[in-house]
Design a protein that fits this description.
This protein is about 5% helix and about 65% strand. It has an 18-stranded antiparallel barrel. Strand 10 and strand 11 form a beta hairpin. The protein has a single domain, classed as Porin (Beta Barrel), CATH 2.40.160. It is mostly beta strands and about 400 residues long. It contains one helix and 19 strands.
Length: about 400
C-alpha cells in the first residue's frame, strides 16, 4: 500500500455516506485494456428481464397483475486518455426499457460520468469527477432514507480534491463534494420523495507507523438542504482512523468517533457514535470485501435527518480455473432511523442482493445471467415490499485507438 492509498480509501468511505453507486443489472461492457494516448470504446447491448413487481407496490397489492418482461437496449460510449501524469475517463450509457405488456412504463435510464486525475509530483496529486443519472425508479438509488417507488429520479454529483505527502511518513488530503437529488414529485409522492442537495468537505491526515500500519484523523462537514424543510441541516463528524495491511492479500481500514447534528427549528441537537470498518482481500482475480458504516445523513425521502447504518459484502471470482467465466455477488443491508420528530418521517429497513454469472468468450463480448432481489419495510402494517428480477444480457464493445 502506498503512502496515499489509505487516504483514498478514507475519502471513498466518507463519500459512501452520501450518494453512492447506483445499481446496474449485469456488469456492463467488457473492461477494455488501455494503452497510452486516447482510446474510444463504443458498446451496445441487449437484455431480457423478468420483473415480479414493476409498480413497486407493497405486499398483497395487485400481485397477480404486477409482473412483466422487460427488454432493454443500451448503447454506451467510453472515452479514455492515459498520459504520463494525467488520466481522463468519461462515458455515457443509455438504457431503453421496453415493457412487453405495460408499455406505459417504457422509458430511458441514462448515466454519464467524467473523471480527471493528475499526478503533479511525487508528493502531490489531485482529482476532479462528476456524474449524473436519470433513473425510472427510486430503488435504483443506493442512498439511505428514500422509500422505493416507481417514480423517476435524477441525481448529479461533483467532487474534487487533492492528496499531499508532507514527508515519508505523513500525508494529508482534502475533498469537496456537491450532490443533488431530484424526483418527479407528483401529488401522491410529494411528502415521501422530496429531494434536495448536500455540500460536504472532508479532511484527512495519516501517519505511517511502518510499512503496514497507518494511523490518523478524519473530519467531515456536511450541510444539507431538503425540499420542504425550512432550515438546512449541518452535520460534523470527527474520527480516529487506522489502516492496516494484515498480509499481502488482506487489508483493513476503519475509524471511530463522534457525529454531531446541529439543532434546527425542527430537530434538537444530537450527538452519537460514528463507526466504519472495511476488510478487503485481493488474490489474483478474486476479490472479497465486507464493510460497516454508522453515521447521520440527510433524508431526501421524508425530510429531516436519519441515523444510517449499512452492512455490505461483495465477492467476485473466476470460475472453473478460467478467466472466461466469473461469478459476482453483493449484498447490502441498510437501517435508517429518523432523528427529526415529524409525522411523515418513518424508519426504513432495506436489503438488496445481486448475483451475476458471466462468460467472456472473447475480450469484446460478455454474456451474463443475473438475479436481483430488493426488500424494504417501513416497519408498519402494509409497509413492506419486495422485488425480484432475473434475466440475461449480451454486451459487445470494441476499443479503438485515436491517433
Amino acid at each position: 500500500m502506498t503512502r496515499t492509498t489509505p487516504i483514498t480509501l478514507v475519502l471513498t468511505a466518507l463519500l459512501g455516506c452520501g450518494l453512492s453507486a447506483q445499481e446496474r443489472l449485469g456488469s456492463g461492457a467488457p473492461q477494455p485494456t488501455y494503452r497510452a494516448g486516447w482510446t474510444i470504446t463504443p458498446a451496445v447491448g441487449f437484455s431480457e428481464t423478468y420483473d415480479d413487481n414493476i409498480s413497486l407496490f407493497g405486499r398483497n397489492t395487485a400481485e397477480q397483475q404486477n409482473d412483466d418482461y422487460v427488454s432493454t437496449y443500451f448503447p454506451a460510449l467510453d472515452l479514455h486518455y492515459a498520459g504520463k501524469h494525467t488520466t481522463l475517463d468519461s462515458g455515457y450509457t443509455g438504457s431503453f426499457l421496453d415493457y412487453r405488456t405495460f408499455s406505459v412504463l417504457d422509458r430511458w435510464d441514462q448515466r454519464a460520468r467524467f473523471e480527471l486525475r493528475r499526478q503533479e509530483s511525487a508528493r502531490f496529486k489531485w482529482f476532479g469527477r462528476a456524474s449524473a443519472a436519470a433513473m425510472p425508479t427510486t430503488d435504483l438509488i443506493e442512498l439511505g432514507g428514500i422509500p422505493f417507488r416507481h417514480t423517476g429520479a435524477r441525481t448529479a454529483d461533483g467532487r474534487g480534491g487533492f492528496e499531499y505527502a508532507v514527508d515519508s511518513k505523513n500525508s494529508i488530503s482534502y475533498s469537496m463534494d456537491y450532490q443533488v437529488v431530484d424526483f418527479d414529485r407528483g401529488a401522491d409522492v410529494s411528502a415521501v420523495l422530496r429531494g434536495g442537495r448536500v455540500l460536504e468537505s472532508m479532511n484527512g491526515w495519516r501517519h505511517k507507523v511502518d510499512s503496514r500500519l497507518a494511523l490518523g484523523l478524519d473530519y467531515s462537514f456536511r450541510r444539507a438542504t431538503v425540499v420542504g424543510d425550512a432550515q438546512a441541516f449541518t452535520i460534523h463528524t470527527s474520527e480516529a482512523a487506522v489502516d492496516y495491511e494484515l498480509s499481502p492479500e488482506w487489508s483493513f481500514s476503519g475509524a471511530g468517533g463522534v457525529v454531531y447534528l446541529q439543532a434546527t427549528e425542527r430537530t434538537a441537537a444530537r450527538t452519537g457514535p460514528a463507526w466504519r470498518g472495511r476488510i478487503e482481500r485481493h488474490r489474483g482475480g478474486t476479490t472479497f470485501h465486507v464493510g460497516y458504516l454508522r453515521t447521520y445523513i440527510p433524508s431526501f425521502g421524508f425530510g429531516g435527518t436519519i441515523q444510517n447504518q449499512e452492512l455490505g459484502v461483495g465477492y467476485r471470482t473466476p470460475l472453473f480455473g478460467s478467466r472466461h467465466f466469473y461469478l459476482d455477488n453483493s449484498a447490502v443491508f441498510r437501517d435508517n432511523q429518523p432523528l427529526t420528530d415529524t409525522i411523515e418521517q418513518l424508519p426504513l429497513r432495506s436489503f438488496r442482493t445481486y448475483s451475476t454469472f458471466g462468460w467472456e468468450p472473447e475480450p469484446w463480448v460478455r454474456i451474463e445471467a443475473f438475479y436481483s432481489y430488493v426488500q424494504q419495510s417501513s416497519l408498519r402494517a402494509g409497509g413492506q415490499l419486495t422485488r425480484n428480477r432475473i434475466g440475461f444480457q449480451i454486451v459487445t464493445s470494441k476499443p479503438m485507438r485515436m491517433q
